[in-house]
Specification:
This protein is α/β, with parallel strands linked by helices. About 35% of the residues lie in helices and about 20% in strands.
Length: about 170
Amino acid sequence: MNDELTAVDIKKMQEEVEYRRLTLRPQLIEDVKVAREFGDLSENFEYKAAKREKNRNDSRIRYLERMIKTAHVIEDNSAADEIGLFDKVTIYIEEDEEEQEIRIVTTLRQNALKGLISKESPVGKAVMGHKEGDRVLVEVNEAYSYYIQIRKVEKGADDDSLPISSY
């Protein structure tokens, strides 16, 4: 399955790969070399930590490159009065009697704690394409669902301000 990403997502990933390859990787290789000189490798914590960081960096580079290679580039084609990608939406969760402001984003930029909700999540799927004033059913799984009301919609745009997630 291909990940649905925007052109900005791909650009941000390419920038991160470039930074990790050209700046961070040489520094981490040097850290490994320095730590290796501290002596017995079996009891050398600095060496193990430096190797682990180098391996994490290499793993992240491979992950990002795979994401870029398999990505399906998408754009927001929602109508002016419909909820689409990067829109800010104020929802009212009926069963909790609570109002929340969320922003619909790609999976790569989701962060529920900051109100950045993936378009692939149950809430994201439920609100996409709907309009202000609609009452929609959020299906979490076969056994649990709940209703929300869409109270306010502010059209948004894809920009560089939203970071990509670390994994």
